[in-house]
Amino acid sequence: MKRTSPWAQRAWLILPLLAAFLLLAAAGQARAAVDEGALQQLATGDFGARIAAIEAIGAGGGEEARRVIAALGAGELGVLDGRVVIVRDGRVTDVGGAVVEAAPDAVDLLRVNNRVRRALATANAALDLSADDATRRLAAAQTLRDNASETLLPVLERALESEQDDAIREIVLLAAAKVNLNADDPAKRLKAVTALGESSDPAVKALLEPFMAQDNGTWREPDALVREAAAASIAAIERRVAVAQNIGTVFSGLSLGSILLLAALGLAITYGVMGVINMAHGELLMVGAYATFVVQGLFRAHLPEWVDWYVVAAIPAGFLAAAAVGVVMERSVLRFLYGRPLESLLATWGISLVLIQAARVVFGPQNVELANPVWMSGGVELAAGVVLPWNRIVILGFAAFVLFLVWLMMNRTRLGMFVRAVTQNRAMAGCVGVPTARVDTLAFAIGAGIAGLGGVALSQISNVGPAMGTGYIVDSFMVVVLGGVGQLAGAVWAAMGLGIVSKFLEGWAGAVIAKILVLVFIIAFIQKRPQGIFALKGRFADN
Amino acid sequence: MQTRRNFLKALTLSASIAAIGVPFGAQAADTIKVGVLHSLSGTMAISETALKNVALMTIEEINANGGVLGKKLEPVVVDPASNWPLFAEKARQLISQDKVAAVFGCWTSVSRKSVNPVFKELNGLLFYPVQYEGEELEKNVFYTGAAPNQQAIPAVEYLMSEEGGGAKRWVLLGTDYVYPRTTNKILRAFLKSKGVAEADIMEDYTPFGHSDYQTIIANIKKFASEGKKTAVVSTINGDSNVPFYKELGNAGLKATDVPVVAFSVGEEELRGVDTKPLVGHLAAWNYFMTVKNGENDAFIKKYKDWAKKNGVPNADTVVTNDPMEATYVGIYMWKQAVEKAKSTDTDKVIAAIGGQTFKAPSGFTLTMDKTNHHLHKPVLIGEVRADGQFDVVWQTKSPIRAQPWSPFIDGNEGKQGL
Question: Secretion signal: which residues (chain B) (predicted)?
């Protein structure tokens, strides 16, 4: 098969050309405006001409060139009537920033593919390495560390001369060292190999490994000192990578655990404490997630400047929506079925189907799109290759927060005391004046509301669609049963334990086998200890 | 292609919703009945409802232009409710009770496998519109989606090429069932034939509906950091794609470092995803909504108008995708064959359909192969854009012939002529 686009044949040109323009750009940043001819070429030329144009624009340097390149990378650069314009946020401007009166739809956007994007990213990073803002320099240094190449060496060396921030210097040093690994001078190589021992990136280890390799009995690296240093560096990197990866696994286990906990906590109240086998629990999660979706829509329509905080507003909304559904469920159906587990199981199952179809009618059968707010996107880089995503960190914290609220509610409020009294001995509680019917409704509403909170959290990492709840119902029951019916502490231990165990098993045996092993373990455990990790002391009057 | 989980729900839905045939239009004597066999409830409804819509739209369009052999087409829509055995029952009902001339339907490979014996026994005619794993050639079935050599292999070749990034190491990631397993078996053999070492291939599967991709992403990162340029081939199916891509974005694996090419992710699937972190990841299909040509513009407009007129939910944001195009092409292929045969008789239509051509929305003139019941299709590779559409970055010059029996699977050597 032949490639059809002309840029295929010319794409290889882009790297050296971009590198060339970087050097020129760094050399002469004086001129602010971009050459008009180059822009023209960018607008009308074929792909080869466009690369040349990018080179020329970059060579000019300055703020405007930076803007053009950034816009090209973001897919915001387009052509309108033969001139290059930038389309951002529905506004059309020329490269200088002046507004152009035109509909954004009329602009023919310039395409980039992964090769161009990679080159642009490196280009941007090299430009940014001399930026005033330290965080930009840091990000640039990280990009260059991962994409270091010979042509970038002068840029890196210049940065080493001028850089004041130690953290950034270190990263630039690593980048430079990676390039210097192939230096002819053994002293330079030795320095580079030793410097790379500070890295925690497994990719660097892969770079160092050839130093330890032999071809037909002769070392590829002639210098024994360099070989020794390489061995030491590899060992140091391996140590660091292993530590980081174990921390990463524990974190992902805790994160999975926190999600299981949020999904199960509501059930721990409705099933665990009240004894209602609530098959519609998953759909209560769904209600919370759709509430989040609605809140997002409202924020986008009415408060676009606050849209990043819609998740915070969704917390009460999700709670209230699910609690309201819970109240209706309890008042209309469940209250007539207390003490009849089979009937309540079937009834709640029916309710779950009603809720699924209702969601399908109201929101359509498609999954809906929920964007992570900016502050929940990305992650903290623990070491190269181990990133703790922000959304998971936030959810971990949120799970702790919800757990604290539930604990407070159950142990420090009058309502909590009533709930505990009713579950321990309904008749006696009624005799001493506890309004058991109202306590049932409130407790169920709170359990449902907490499921709604779980839904808010789940919406940030998972699908939001009419059928999302069915995926969590099994996991939720698993956690509650394993933890011990009637116990919140049990649910916490069970969720975290299951999370960490399945993550370690997954790393070792793969996701499919891990899931089977976890289920087998639970069956075995329930056989041995049917009451769960924690048994409730005292007696159920209902039993 | 896709089977999905939630058998429980499919079961209850099929039990709770009486899924009976809904005949459309008036019961005139001089009509030709055609069956539409797509799940309108249950887990597959997400993907298959759009195919039913396109089928109805196409039939309306044919009727508006005078019908087939001077008769109007009368669609018979049934709902097999994502329940594989029910597919067979509904197919039987369509052929023996409603006496349809042809059936357009099925999405998952397992549903196709479940209706195959019915079509064989009753000598019916099925047009199957979804890309699949190959290894099948039924006399009564026409496959208007892609065979592996019309999707998977060109995609991998592209990633190997200089322009695609020159990948040297491969992660084959999929949902654990027949389509991904077979596709990856073919790809593994193909990669080996290109000199890729065993140690440079990582194969991993997740259960249906898997939603926690932390470990797998960490493993991919580790694998990718071991020296050579890495690419991921994803046959992850359905809902799991959202958590997978979200995790990918948050873990900082960018398309420029480790590109992911997917075979089951199209415009429809991306409607539920925030696509900004996914820009640059790839998909391989035989059609994209962004393809620019007169046929496609007309196709998209027709579908949007139809959706608005018929009150499809979210009608203003409907998209078209590859299986929808394949459904559209399939119905026209059948129409042309019937007109050539001057009969709707199954055997006569089968004899007439080989060599039929149709100018498809993909911008190519597609041909039904004379012998192997598959279309000659172009292969397009697209990169995800921030708006959930695809930029075509590579395409074949002309349609390529399907190889339903992949030469990369042992025992298929004698079947290449088919």
Answer: 1-28
